[in-house]
Design a protein that fits this description.
The protein has 14 helices and no strands. The chain has about 260 residues and is mostly helical. α5 packs antiparallel against α6.
Length: about 260
């Protein structure tokens, strides 16, 4: 019986990062493995990267998504481009996806402006996965809580902005609930510089996302916008989402709308 390696305390700084990584990845319980790995990887830096990377490379074929995701996240804290490029070189395609996605998302969470400046070169070199790179960048920026994301999305040349808005609002919902979704959407809906197409995407997605959580609050939020041309889908979306939870309340709300 080999037993279990001793768990790290939150304040421990491993003397041997490679050994600590092996011990963490050797935990049988997913919760213990990820918790101990996170404790080790918070100390990852340029000086000890090589020894930790050697462990992950040795175990790569058997590592799960979460193992790779937190490793790439930790690496991207100090060398995001290096973390992304290395993950893109992994042998297994699925692991390339997990690692590179985590690196881009982590970069945007830490410094979305820096990540945005680097994005054109990354996309140019990896055009085949452009959509996935942009998606993770937007989600990371949303989780950062830093301003400017609405302006960035408005600048994306696309006929379908709803896809990008949805990525952002799902992240915002996780961070702050429906109130945060409404506040971010308001920033677009109340700005005359934004196109009707972007406003339609913000209202549709914001309402669909938040009404699943709190239909009464969402009905109150959307009411002032319903007379706008870009809000013509509002009543249908609101009734559909509310109807899944309380059909009678949704019908009553619809009947109370002005003709």
């Amino acid at each position: 019986d080999l037993g279990s390696p001793p768990a790290l305390t939150a304040s421990s700084v491993p003397a041997d990062m490679g050994l600590a990584s092996r011990n963490a990845l050797g935990q049988g319980s997913p919760m213990a493995r990820l918790g101990q790995s996170a404790q080790v990887l918070q100390h990852l830096n340029a000086e000890n990267l090589e020894e930790v990377l050697a462990v992950y490379e040795m175990m790569l074929s058997g590592l799960g998504d979460c193992d790779l995701r937190i490793f790439s996240d930790a690496w991207a804290q100090f060398d995001p481009r290096g973390a992304f490029d290395h993950a893109m070189g992994w042998e297994w395609s699925h692991k390339r996806v997990v690692g590179s996605d985590a690196a881009i998302r982590s970069w945007a969470i830490r410094d979305p402006i820096e990540a945005a400046a680097a994005l054109p070169d990354i996309v140019a070199e990896n055009s085949r996965i452009q959509s996935r790179i942009i998606d993770n960048f937007l989600v990371g920026w949303a989780h950062s809580g830093q301003p400017g994301l609405d302006e960035y999305i408005a600048g994306i040349k696309t006929q379908a902005p709803e896809k990008y808005v949805a990525q952002v609002l799902h992240a915002i919902l996780r961070r702050g609930g429906p109130e945060a979704v409404h506040a971010w959407s308001d920033g677009i809906l109340q700005d005359s510089d934004y196109s009707d197409g972007l406003k339609r995407a913000a209202l549709r997605t914001g309402l669909r996302t938040s009404a699943r959580w709190d239909p009464e609050l969402s009905a109150e939020w959307v009411a002032p916008y319903l007379e706008e041309e870009w809000a013509d889908d509002g009543p249908r979306i609101m009734a559909d989402q509310w109807g899944k939870q309380d059909g009678l309340a949704a019908i009553e709300w619809g009947r109370a709308l002005p003709e």
